[in-house]
Design brief:
The chain is an alpha/beta fold and 493 residues long. 31% of the residues lie in helices and 26% in strands. α4 crosses α5 and α6 packs across α7.
Length: 493
């Protein structure tokens, strides 16, 4: 079983059924199959894509993302979804690291595409406005590929603690496994309609928002505009959406929006960032729909645990492991800790990645005796519910997207006159967290905050740009010279 054959089965059973709602437009299973098949032929014919070749997707949310996903897989290729908020230098690194020759994108990326074309003259672009009309391809559908469960399907790039992104290698088997586990725990069936309003490049949306509904014969409601929040509710009502996966900040926004009568939702899932108790309380007081928190990471395809949909729900808990996935709390020596003892959350199962692309050392640090070391610290209670108490990794979550301070610090260090730099996260009611930078000037140098932030903005995605820069005569350090980020965080309060 691979993702293409699994999707082909859904197409055979639901050819005329609406697979995706996009405003007033509807796309059937047959439409996606036809367009995916046409793209696969184009990748073979025009660009000589071979099994195992990496092909990038750099798109904003749109129906063609799904055609691109299955088109690449149908051609035997490996999908590399790229964060559409990244700046050209960040995208270039991923393209080079993954060895991508073909990038599926759109004209609205504008000047960024020109920059990539200039720096990567060997890169070929496939624009979605040049995709074949699926209505004209309905008689030429051929969804099949020879890839096996152990073959790579997707490489998801996550920000790395070294300042460079790492590519988590997910196989066809990893993703089919995680989809089936999610199907069981969410009791997903063909009449379910899943809302997508988060970025489709995100591993959470890739599995729960795209693959799960399409492989169970359900439908997707792709939201065209998330502002204001009432637009989301209107589209949920219009298209009868039943399951809403999103991030905490979205549920806070919905809690302040008027609740329409006869809301069709049966379940809301909060993921990609911790769900604050206050948000869950506000939402639950207003909406007659369960809001349950889950946990995952790209390296686990990504879903690991979820509060049971029929309860009991424990506020502050990431719930219990989903079917066919094991979770353990371990110490540094790899010993399993008893209930209530705090250690590193570790995951084992068919959903765990094959490793990091071209990074055997990082893979060895992350995979130990079959267990994925998540870098998150927590414990299990006597009822088998897990809790995250801290993040071992020096990571921020901005709107549910991982941001590593080291990556920002590396850019700040490039600015003329900077001697030292450090970045920490501070709570933000709208974004979850925001980065704050601290900088020390070289002797005799004068640093300008506005110029420094503009410098960072030109090199990193906007959500990674610090909210402000605090200039210090020196950074607080311990006896071994390590920067005391706890002391820096105290300066922000």
């Amino acid at each position: 079983m691979n993702l293409v054959s699994a999707f082909a089965r859904s197409v055979d059973q639901n050819a005329a059924k609406t697979a995706l709602f996009w405003g007033d437009s509807e796309y059937s299973y047959r439409d996606f199959a036809a367009q995916s098949g046409g793209l696969a032929r184009k990748l073979h014919r025009d660009f000589h894509v071979q099994p195992g070749d990496r092909v990038g997707i750099w798109l904003k949310n749109c129906p063609e993302f799904i055609s691109a996903l299955f088109g690449i897989l149908n051609a035997g290729g490996v999908v590399v979804p790229i964060n559409n908020f990244l700046k050209p230098p960040e995208v270039e690194y991923i393209l080079r690291d993954a060895g991508i020759r073909v990038l599926i994108t759109e004209q609205s990326m504008g000047d960024a595409l020109a920059q990539l074309a200039s720096s990567l003259p060997e890169l070929h672009f496939v624009h979605i406005n040049n995709f074949d009309d699926p209505k004209q391809l309905a008689g030429a559908v051929n969804l099949s590929c020879s890839r096996t469960a152990s073959d790579l399907a997707v490489i998801i790039y996550t920000s790395g603690t070294t300042g460079r992104p790492k590519g988590a290698m997910l196989t066809h088997g990893n993703l089919v496994h995680n989809v089936d586990s999610c199907r069981q725990v969410l009791e997903a069936v063909s009449f379910d309609r899943f809302v997508i309003l988060l970025p489709m490049f995100h591993s959470f949306m890739l599995c729960v928002g795209i693959l799960l509904p399409l492989l169970v014969g359900g439908s997707i409601v792709l939201i065209k505009s998330v502002h204001p929040p009432k637009n989301i509710l209107q589209e949920i009502m219009q298209h009868g959406a039943t399951i809403l996966p999103a991030i905490p900040q979205l549920f806070r926004a919905l809690a302040n929006a008027p609740v329409p009568p006869n809301l069709p939702l049966r379940l809301c899932i909060s993921g990609a960032a911790p769900l604050p108790r206050e948000i869950q309380k506000e939402f639950s007081a207003k909406f007659p729909v369960p809001l349950i928190e889950g946990y995952g990471l790209s390296e686990a395809s990504p879903v690991v645990s979820l509060n049971p949909i029929h309860g009991p729900w424990k506020t502050g808990s990431i719930g219990k492991p989903i079917p066919d996935v094991e979770v353990s709390v371990q110490n540094e020596a790899g010993e399993h800790l008893p209930d209530a003892e705090v250690g590193e959350i570790c995951v084992r199962g068919g959903n765990v990645m094959a490793g990091y692309w071209n990074q055997p050392d990082e893979t060895a640090k992350t995979l130990r005796n079959g267990w994925l070391l998540t870098g998150d610290v927590g414990y299990r209670d006597a009822d088998g519910y897990y809790y995250i108490t801290d993040r071992k990794k020096d990571m921020l979550l901005v709107n549910g997207i991982n941001v590593y301070p080291r990556e920002i610090e590396e850019v700040i260090y490039q600015f003329p006159g900077v001697k030292e730099a450090a970045v920490v996260g501070v709570p933000d009611p709208r974004r979850g967290e925001q980065p704050i930078a601290f900088a020390v000037a070289d002797d005799g140098a004068a640093l300008d905050e506005k110029a420094l932030l503009q410098f960072v903005r030109e090199k990193l995605a906007d959500y990674k740009v610090p909210r402000k820069v605090v200039f210090l005569p020196s950074l607080p350090r311990n006896a071994t010279g390590k920067t005391l980020k706890t002391a820096l965080r105290q300066m922000t309060t």
